[in-house]
Each structure stands twice: as C-alpha cells, then as structure tokens.
Predict the 3D structure of the following.
Amino acid sequence: MISYIFRRVLLMAPLLLAIVTITFLLMHTIQGGPFDSDKPLPPATRQRLEERYGLDKPLPEQYVNYLFRLVQLDLGISLANDRPVRELIGEHIVPTVQLGLTSFVFALAFGIALGTVSGLNQNGMWDYVGAFVSTLGATMPSFILAPLLVIVFVLRLHWFDVLGWEFMNHRKMVLPILATGMYPMAFLTRITRAALLDVLHQDYVRTARAKGLSEFRVVVRHMAKNAMIPVLTVSGLLLAHLITGSFIVEQAFAIPGTGREFINSVLVRDYGVMMGLIVTYTLIYAMMTLVVDVMYAVVDPRIRY
Amino acid sequence: MRNIGKSALFAAAIGAAIVAFGCSSGKKEEAAKPAQSQPAAAASTSDAPSGTITIQGLQFETWDPHFSDFAQDIAHFYMVWRGLYEFDLNSKPIPSMAEAMPAVSADGLTYTVKLRQGLKWSDGSAITADDFVLGLQRTCNPDVAGHYQYIMSAVVGCDAYYAANGNPKATPPVPAKSAAEKDALRKAVGVRAVDANTVEYKLSSPQPTFTILLAMWPTFPVASKKVTAADAKWPGPLENAYNGPFMPSAYTEKSSITLVPNPNWAGKQKAQVAKLVIKYIDDLSVANNAYRAGELDATGVNLVELDAVQKDAVLSKELVEYPATRTIGLEFNMTDPQLSNKDLRMALSQATDRVTLNKVPNKGAHVPTTNWIPPDRSGTKIGTYDASIGFDVTKAKASLAASKIAPADVKLTLLLTDSPTNKAIGEFLQSEWKKHLGIDVKLEFVDSKTRSARFNATQFQVVTGGWQEDYPDPENWMIGLWESKGSINKTKTNIAALDDLISKAKFNQNDETRRQQYRDAEKMLLDGVNGIAPLWHTGNHRLVKPHISGMKESKRPGDTFAVGDWNPENWKTSKK
C-alpha cells in the first residue's frame, strides 16, 4: 500500500507539468492581456509594467522561469494586485475550504440519512419525501437557489445576513452552506438509495437477519458498509469539487474565496493567480482521487493494491 | 416502521446538531465581538467622532498611489492620504498640506510650495518637504512603473528617469541605464526640498494645470520612515503611515477594510465617524440586497434594478442621482477605408436616437448627449452639437447620400463588450441604422479584455467606448486622446488644425482663453464626427441611508464608489 501511494504521488508530477503547460499556452493564446483596459495605457507605461512582471521576455523564457519558480513553490506575483500569489491563495482558500467542508458535511449527513430512509422504505411515504427533496436539490441550480434563499431568509424573515462568511457565525454560514450543499446532498441521496436497494436483497443481508441480529445492526454493519463504496467514490470528487470553490455562491454572498478569485483572474488575465489556482486545484483533485482509492481498500477488504 | 424511525431520528439528530452548532457558535461570536471592536472614539463630546458607516466599494488593486490608476484605488487614497492641495466641492484645487497656493515664477516653470507648520503622519513622525520629493520621484521611477507617470511629463527629467530601463524592442534597441546612471536621473527629476518646509518643482514647459496635479495621487507624499528610498517596497494598508482624515485599522482582502480617524489629520474638518467600513462587493445586485437588509448604509445601484428603485416608495427617497465625468460614444477607426468618409460617420451619428437609446436599453440611467467634454468641465451647454451631429433622420439620409456609398455596400462591424446591457445597446443601434439608413451592421460581442486589446491595437471599425476624466480640467479630455501623435489616440484621428489648437491651449497660461481653445478644439472634433460620436454622459446612481449626512452634500462627478468619497471627513451618521 505504501509503495502504491508513493507511486501515485510521483505520478502527480507529470500530470502537473502537463496541466501547467497546457494552461500556460492557452492563457497566452487568448486575446487581451492584463494591461489592456478601457483606458489605454501610453506605450512607455505599458512597457514599464511588462518589465515589472517579466512579461517583456519571450514566451518560452517566461514558461521556463515559471517552472523554475514553481519547483521552489513560488507561484509568482498577481498582476491584478501586485501581491505574491501563494500568499493570496493562502488567504482566499480559507473561506472556500471552510464553506466546502461544512457544505460537504451537510450534504453527506443529510444525503446519506435521506438516502438510507428512502432505500429502506422503497415506494413508501419517506421514499417520496426523499425523492421530492433530492429532485428539488438536483434541479435548482445555485444561481437560482442563492438569490431565492436571500429573498426569503434575509429580506423577508431577517434570519441571516447577505454579506460575507464568518466561520462559527450561523448568520453568515447557513445560507451559503445550503446554496452550496443542496445539489451534492440531492446527489448523495440518490446514490445512497440506489446502493442500498442494491444490497437490500443480497444473501448476506438475509443471513444476518436469519442470525437474529437487530435491524439496526443489519442496516449499519451489513448493508450500509457495503452500500458505501459508490457513495465513497462520488464523495471524494464531490469534496474536491466543493473545496475548490463555487463562483456563484461566493459571488452571491460576497465571500472572498478562490472560486470568485479564479473566475476574476481569467476575466482580468491575472496570469499568476490563474496558474496558481490551476496548480492548487490539480493537486487537490489528484490528492482526493488518491484518498478515495485508499479508502476503497479500507472499506472493502477484497480491494488490495 | 422501527427502522424508519431510527433512520429518521439519525437524520434529524445530524440536522439538529448542525443547526445547534451554527446557532450556538453564532451567539459566541456575537459575545466576542466587543473585544474585537476598534479603538473607541476618543471622548464622548459632541465633536468626537461617533457611529459607524458601512459602504459598498470595490477592492483596490494596489495600495500604492504612485503606481495606480484604478478609480477604486484612488477613492481609497483620498480617504487616507492628501497632497499639497485637494479639491473643493467645485473640483478646484485648494491648499491641503500646503500653506497657500503655489508661488509660480513669471515664466511658469517653477512652482514653490510652503508646507503648513507642524504636519505629522499618523505614526507621529513629521511630514517634511523631502516626503513630497520622494513621492514624485517614485511616480517617475521606472521600477515603480506608475500608470500616471505620463501626466507628470512636464516635470524636468521625469520622462528621462522613467525611460531609464531602456527599450529592447526599439530599433535600434535602447540599453538600460546602470544603477549609478539611474540614480543620477532620479536626482535630476525637477523636484527638490528647498528646506524642510518648502518644495520646489521645475517644469520643462509651462503647464497651467500643474496645481491640479499637485492635488493628485501621483504627487502624494511618502512617509520616509516607512519608505526609505524611491525603490523601496510600498507598505500595505496596516503597515503604512497616513496624512489624510482616516487610517486603516483592519483589512481583509476582497472582504472589507475598516478606517478610523487619523489623530494627526491636519485638515480643518476632522473626521466625524468613529468607524468607516468599506465592504468589497463587486456584484451590485448583492450589494443592493445587503442595503435593503440594513447591512450597508450606502451603495451603488444595480442599473438593472434602477427603475424598480425609482418606483420604490422608500428607496426612491434614498436615491442620489447625478452625472459622472464620463462620456461614452461610438468610436470610429479613422483609418478604416469606409469610416475615413466623414459623411458616413455623420450619417451614423445622425441616425442614432440618443434619447430612446438612453430610455430603453440604458433604462434612463444616463444623460443623452452630443458633447464630448462634460458641460461642467467645458462650460459648453449640453446639446450644443445636437443640430450638427444629433438625431435627425432627414439629415442622416442626406449625409449617407453625400458619402456616395450605397447602403448595401456599407460593411461595418460594431464591437462591444459582452454584457446584457451592451447586447441591448448593440441591437438597438443595429435596428436604428437599418431602419433609417438601410445598412446592415454586424455586432461582435467579446469579453472586456479582448475588446480593450482590439481597441488598443486599433483592430476595430466601430466600438462603444469613451473616456473617464482623470482630473477636472478640459485638457484631460483632449491631450493624448485626439492629437495625431497622442499616446492614447487609438481611433487614429489625424487633424493638423486640431493638433495645433491643442498644443496652443496646453501651454496657454491665460485660463480664460485656454478654456476657449479647448471649446474650439471640441467643436473641431465633433463637427466632423472625428473619431467619436458621443452618445451619453454616464450617470451616478447611489443609495444613501437617511441617517447619513455630509455624503450627498460632498458629491462630485468624479465619485467612484460612494457619494462624496473624496471627502469622507464630511460624512456623519445619526445612527448610534
């Protein structure tokens, strides 16, 4: 297992190199640069700015310089606000990860609970409740859900705030979590229900019941454990997706996270931030995939690397 | 049924735990808040600053006044720093750190300014003439790469110092200067401290607007205790020293900045609010919801909701509307084979119904115009050019006929930045020109940076664009923009008589005749629809809670993100 993990970590290097190269090329292919603005800059000013950020160098030289800095964990300077990108990402990733993790916990807790209740009561009232909630969550995109939540819970009921994110402050946490977590929750509900129905009539479940085990033990120790494999598969990627930020939710609640930062960096051609976030996201996704693969072996003893 | 009960109970327990966790933690946070509050306003006298004003703003891009040209940055700068002069509510320069207006030599080339006695930075150190010398040297420093260096071109040696890094792309390449040569060029910049309290500026040619420049951020002083040399790194908000009415006490990037009164602010009007919080929100629909929910005391209006705000019984009373110093129009590429035809440009301008354009796609947000320079700056009445280039279908048809280009042969593409409003504007113009002139114009929507890149490279035929004033003078609407060799003349307008007139006005020390020359230049520009057919002057639309005073009263057309944001010391709140 250790050697497997080591191999996978090593394989991240070529993956990262490929993604950095493709992004670097695409980034410089699109028209419009960081110093193109509605108010044109005089040529001398533009030249000074390009010098300041090393953009006056030929593209291959810029690429090699970037790679050289990257191996030293230096992500360069943000062209939009003149600060080290590593420092910037370090600040912005905090609310994004907090929001992503809490939304994930919400989605996991309610998704698995609702999916389990639905699965155990196929075609019963609770199954319809689960289907209704999950359909609602799956069909309502966050760009509709977020403003809707604001209108109802902020402007009408005054229960929560519109602006910002503050960890451990429910007035600023609940709505962003709901807007972020509803879709994954709905998704996990459906996956859990389907997985549970799959194991419901398996021989080992019948055997467990025949042994006289309590229903709670049958569900938790025999059914849920086996039904968790597909849930685990999607959970890993869902978590990666959630902790890399949502532009829409961060924009809707003015949360200074990386999701908003990433889209803005593309719009303003902030090459440093764009590349830095791509590198960070790549590492997060690669790590989460690895964690999921390792977790398979933990949950299912038949899987060995 | 038992199973369902347990599962449901399990789900409910998790949900309750999350809600309880959120609620209890929220309470804890509220309880902890007083400990985190800012230093309280000094005394509880009636003059002591009191209350908090929270406004919507845009995140500044850089905190360095000698580097930046972004409007949101500049609004921040005026809250915490001031120059030798500042602008009064009529945008006229008045002494700020200076004792009086500058003493100008007879040839107009030397400006001598005495500082007020006893000036101090927020950290208690003395403000001296050297701080102003270093400020201007930073603006001219090629390594700082100041965006606004070009407005200081009249200062002796500023351009030469700015060019010290050479130009490898020039033919032949210009080598960079050595460190010693660069230092010599820095010292040669025409600014010096005559004594600790006197600054002297030397110009290479007279610039009648130089006092205005001494009120602007590129000439702001530097706290030499914090920034020891022209090359030194510029400290961030919480590390710097300030000489303006407020100073930062807390800052979270992309979230908010909190400003508190600067105890050493030397202005007559002391800060009147104990805490000024700027929340960084770039989506105005979010900001408007926050304003409605009471989380903001002032915000810009989301133009999509403008008509709803105007009809709202409460919000309409809190709405402040006034023109900005920004003009938007149709910019023509004067080197395009078809658009070099004056009559075709004239036809397009005359076939554009500016009033309906403003009413429908722009939702009445702006002021329709045919003027280039806003009337406040030029002294020309709005509508002066309506008769020549304004909406008139008969004249438009006659102009198209005079162009000798058949409608079917007109091949034009209008370039716009992709946005819902611009889509509506593009489609409106397309239908107007089809209806009145019978010509088919293609629309091309691109993202903002692509549009700017295309404009900067003059890779367009017609584009919607314009100008936002840098400083309150008509010269800022002409110099660089419309001279044939102007550094930002991207329409490639090339009129020898206009060049001549602008260069005369530029050095004219008689303010009255100088202003008349700019009015004549504007007429010359517009009568031939050279490079631009103005469409509207942008409107400012802000919401301000009734408990605030001093904001509306301090409004100026240049306000960037809050009403009266260049004079926050005038703001006051009755909310406790």
Notes: Chain B has a mean pLDDT of 90. Residues 153 and 159 of chain B are 6 Å apart (CA to CA). DSSP finds 18 helices and 19 strands in chain B.
